[in-house]
Amino acid sequence: MDLFEYQGKQYFAQFGIPVSPGGAADTVDEAVAVAEKVGYPVVVKAQVKVGGRGKAGGIKLADNIEEVRLHAGNILGMDIKGHVVHHLWVERSSDIQKEYYASFTLDRPNKTHLGMLSAQGGVDIEEVAASNPDAIAMLSIDPVRGLDLETSRRWVQEASLDEVAREQAAELLVKLYECYTKGDCDLAEINPLILTTENKVHALDAKVTLDENASYRHPEWEAFRATETEDPREKMAKEKGLNYIGLDGTVGIIANGAGLAMSTLDVVNQVGGSAANFLDIGGGANADVMAAALEVINADPKVKAIFVNIFGGITRVDEVAKGVLEALNRVTISSPIVLRLDGTNAVEGRAILASHLNERLITEPTMLDAARRAVGLANA
Amino acid sequence: MSIFVDENTKVIVQGLTGGQGRFHGLRNRDYGTKIVGGVTPGKGGTDVDGIPVFNSVKEAVAATGATASFVSVPPKFAAAAILEAAEGGITFIVCITEGIPAHDEAVTYNRLVEDFPGVRLLGPNCPGIISPGKCNIGITSGDIALPGGPVGIVSRSGTLTYQALHELSQQGIGQTTCVGIGGDPVPGTNFIDCLAAFEADPETKAVMMIGEIGGSEEERAAEWIKANMTKPVVSYIAGVTAPPGRKMGHAGAIISGSKGTAQAKMDALAAAGVHVCLNPTEAGEKMVEIVKGL
Question: Best-predicted range by mean pLDDT among A2-11, A120-129, B247-256?
């Protein structure tokens, strides 16, 4: 789950990472109230989960109440690369002396954590990384040992942060690492991490991605979840516990396992069709989950045929078959269903469906045959 | 021969008394795997369909001589269960649990490397390992595998592992061992570990490698193949048409560059001399052709 900047900053603050005084606002009046409280000048920032908002006019400086009203009014409702602005973050403006970059993420090939720190932060960090990789000090961190202050001090020196910023930055990085690990982040990134003209170091932006697998130990994440806006199809799927991504094609896809679901998309594409969605019912799906999956696909008016591609492992094919029948009893499925069933309890599963097969409920022996049949029906 | 396990491997199931553990543990035993015990704290002294249950891995190992463990416990207990297995003397751990927090995986992996260098972890979030006719640990349906070799399979995706087995078995091509390494961020065993083991196994004559988008493990495997592999490799990478994933801030772009797309992986593998196929069926057909020409 990606957080908005303001949520990221609130999360940072819980771990003692300094951020500018500010507050979130969903209306012009709320923005004004925050500005009056933190003092002018303030920065009014659009809260969208996409980069390039500054260039799109989503970040404005305001020196007084009139300017806050003007900018907040303009930015709320603005469309930035397809993301409509519903939230603002208003904070006390900072006088920037230097912009740094700092982040922690998982180093997958090395199976350690990776810290990245640069004295050349700001909007062009990716170009810096490409043209002058030495400008980024990479630190490999053993997850068992973690990051201590000593190591952090050597790191800020290696990254050539300004002398005056080093001790504050070293302390801040230890806190950011805590936020990253104890806070179960996939990514904790600050760009820019600034040195102010008063020689203070703090986070001017926050990019945080949380690991959904850890949500069981973070009940506080519920507040973040409430602000997620989604494709209505995806919302419905999530409520039913399904991993669904909406696409633009005409063949509805249901598969078990992300790999098989991706492969199903590939095969549908190769035989001349286009997928309406990616839907992984996961491991161990039962009849209820299968029925819910069919209902989600059925709600998409673009779907002309449904391809159910199941290779049972944890998922038992007989359960899948029961789910198909249950869905057919519960709702009218408006598209023909083509099934390919193999794996655990496939014989039992096929037997359950045998007496129900007709021109709207079809089984095919292989993945490729089923893809061709479904695409043929969708394109008919 | 098979890799990592064989007909003599003695296996305990951590979580045997749970729904999943019982279902798959008993299926593994029915397949012929030596499932010698189960572990569930507080249920020692009971049994599951004749399989003795112990309170701890240590007790189970002492009583049965098991060297392998099948970990089938919920995500919040999985990391502790893996470490308990290593501490209890198990040397090969298969963890099928899906949904373990990434930070737990990172700590567990590194703890194993540092404190138990002789222990191999397969998974988490993987279908397990099957050496047809000899040993099946995990959730793979045994009847889709065919004994006798000569193909080794390594796959990052669960269901595509079954698909690969199925494609080969349908064509009468057997497997030495099929390893599902799982797609989690910190896999205990990676492509290169399996490729190296297959390269060293005299009965494995060719390898099928199934990858998917994301990360750079396939690219690293391609480099290894180019430098070390003498046996033919057929590969399929899922996700050519997958919806573009979200970008993880700048950090993801700085680390990965153009790596991670299906196309980049296929290009890297093709450049290493691997037969790259566009779907699982094509990969199966290509392997049939290679095996017939051996």
Answer: A2-11
